[in-house]
Amino acid sequence: MHVFSDASEKAVCAVAYLRVISNKGQTYHGLLTGKSKLSPQHSNTIPRLELCAAVLSTEIASFVLKNIDTTIHEVKFFTDSRIVLGYIHNQTRRFHTYVANRVQRIRQHSDPEQWNYISTEDNPADVGSRGVLANELTQSLWFQGPSYLQIDKTEKEDYSLVNPDNDSEIKNVNVISQKMCIKTFEVYKKIEKFSSWTSMVRAFTVLRRAVRKKLNLPPLDTVHMNRATELFLVKLCQNTTFAAEISNLAGNKPVPKDSCLRYLDPYLHDGIIRLGGRVRTGDALSNEHGPIIIHGKTHLARLLVQRCHETIKHQGRHLTEGIVRSSGYCVIGGKRLISSIIHSCVICRKLRRELEHQKMGNLPECRTRPSPPFTYVGVDAFGPWEITSRKTRGGSVNSKRWGILFTCLTCRAVHIELVEDMASPTFINALRRFVAIRGKVAEFRSDRGTNFVGSTDALGIAAVNVESLSMKNFLTNNGCTWIFNPPHSSHMGGVWERMIGMTRRILDSMFLKESKKNLNHDVLNTLMSEVAAIINSRPIVPVSTDPSQPSVLSPYTLLTQKTELDVGPFEHFDIKDMYKSHWKYVQILANQFWKKWHSQYLQLLQSRRKWIDPRNNLAEGDVILLKDQDSPRNEWPMGIVQRVFPSEDGRVRKIEIRVVKNGRVVTYVRPVTETVLLFVP
User: Is the previous residue joined to 254 through a cis bond, with omega within 30 degrees of 0?
Assistant: First the structure.
């Protein structure tokens, strides 16, 4: 079978003829099939179209061979494009995608030896590609075929690429001449690409096993092969880091005086430097010879220590150092390396790293500026206590009571209100009573517990909702603002948490004398007033031993001097004015209080008792461990810092965290003291 192909700007064509030779040597040929189709219109060159025609001819040949009943002994392909023949016979150059894909298809269905050249005048496919009039079709080569079919010979030619340097379909070849020099340290650099000792040994073991198979060497079992690979890697490491020492030891010379191995008395065994010393009978922990020396600054030593650290389940430096020596290795600078690895180990951080903290922030302005008592107030709830609400024939009916503590952020006075429940109307009434007694409040501060904020209806608990409409209206009408601390940050409200602790201790002492059977609302309310009086009479500065200062600085001194408005600093009065008028006597008492408050109390607030040094701020994208008081540390969830909230001094003490809880992605706002930094991406 002979298949001819041709192409023009109008169409591509392929036609197949069957050539039969009889027993007498007579030749017969006839048309088998032909196919023409329009040429693509998008910027195709003539060589590309000729290549498409060649692809079409292989498709026709495959179709005929699949469907014809006669056995075809030989198939030949013909084209009048020497460029296409060069593409098909090419063995040295690479083509761009368009030509490469079509040459691959041609060579899948034919061999380059089957392709031959035919002139355009003798190519019958030229009729199908260029077209012919109907009355001239019977006299054309389409039905008759070329005269070549009568000749029983084929001339073999060398079809090389035509002008390959200027052909845009052929990729340019950049010839680089370089001298290859394989050195030990270049092979050793491959070790730095591994992140674990096991994967490194496994990879080099596979490579060494392939080399042994190539050299027809007998195979080794896995254990001996892994050990041989480890020694091979150690040799590479030592040849890089201890080249001078190996050279001296091989020549029976001492190591250089500036070498870190000078005091270790090293010796060379099988090309490996080992730890020497006065005991030369060998170390039992390393079989027959001393431990292998590895420099601690190499990547091989880091992988080794990481493997030993994981073997002992992430224990401390002492155990890790012991397992390294038991494995038969001596790491130079091992203590520093082990400490570095343990410090950066994520699992060790999850198990034992301390919670994050930041330098203690500055006090808010309301705590360092003189103002009338209870102008800036901290609020918190505590309790409950069971009381006897009413008597019955068979006993009594009990109910619960809670306490609402208001503490002045300036003079540290307290006011306690007793409430029957934690509903919003009850809390508003307690707030109204407090404002009626103590005067107007400019600012409230509290924690962000469910006692003051949150969807209490959805949680099914009895709690005050400061964000409810009635509460907001009360605050707006009174010109107050309410500032919340971040959730789970009780340390930010220590000014009222300490007062609650003191209140509880005083109540516990009172309950020892008072029988709880007689505890009712009136008795408990009286006890709360007495507790507030005791707390307000406490000294807020150390008591002086100087006889000239018999008085103490306590909030009780100033409570009766509360005005509705902050009138600012008072006019200066002399001590002689105390005898002229009683109102001046009151003003002098107030002045003496604020003078001691400035000179003594503020000085106590100046120092930081903890969290003295600043630390690096957490940043967005950091991976952290979120503390959960209801779960053991192994079950604390991991999260990502999604947002940070810098304070006025630029330190980050509050962050927004994204974690997965119960299969859902949730976000929390937490202080940094509730997190553990695992790693920074």
Answer: no
pLDDT tens digits for 271-295?
A: 899 988 776 554 444 456 789 999 9
254/250 Cα distance (integer angstroms): 10
* Strand pairing category for 376-391 and 11-21: unpaired
Secondary structure (DSSP) of 117-184: E--STT-THHHHHH---HHHHTTSHHHH--GGGG-----------SSTTT-TTBPP-----------H
Q: Give ∠ CA 77-83-88 in degrees, rounded to 5.
A: 50
What order do you get walking across the sheet with 27-38 strand by strand? 27-38, 11-21, 2-7, 76-79, 115-117
pLDDT at 168 over 80: no
Angle formed at CA 140 by CA 134 and CA 141, multiple of 5 degrees? 140
Helix (H, G, I), strand (E, B) or coil at 294: strand
Token code pair at residue 46: 């003539």
Q: What are phi and psi of 417, to 5 degrees?
A: -115, 140
Quick one: 536 exposed, middle or buried, by C-beta within 10 A (0-12, 13-18, 19+)? buried
Cβ neighbours of 408 (radius 10 Å): 27
Rounded mean pLDDT, 383-404: 82
Can you list the alpha helix ranges (DSSP code H) found in 401-450? 424-438
Q: How many CB atoms lie within 10 A of CB 48?
A: 19
- Its pTM stands at 0.58
For residue 379, how many other CB atoms are within 10 A of its CB? 24
Cα dihedral 352/355/358/364 (nearest 10):
-160
The structure tokens 């969807």 sit at 455
Nearest to 82 by CA among 123, 42, 41, 131: 123
How many angstroms separate the first and last alpha carbons of the chain?
A: 67
Q: Average pLDDT of 505-532?
A: 84
Q: What is the bridge-based pairing of β-strands 376-391 and 443-446?
A: parallel
Contacts of 499 (CB under 8 A, 6+ apart): 405, 407, 412, 414, 535
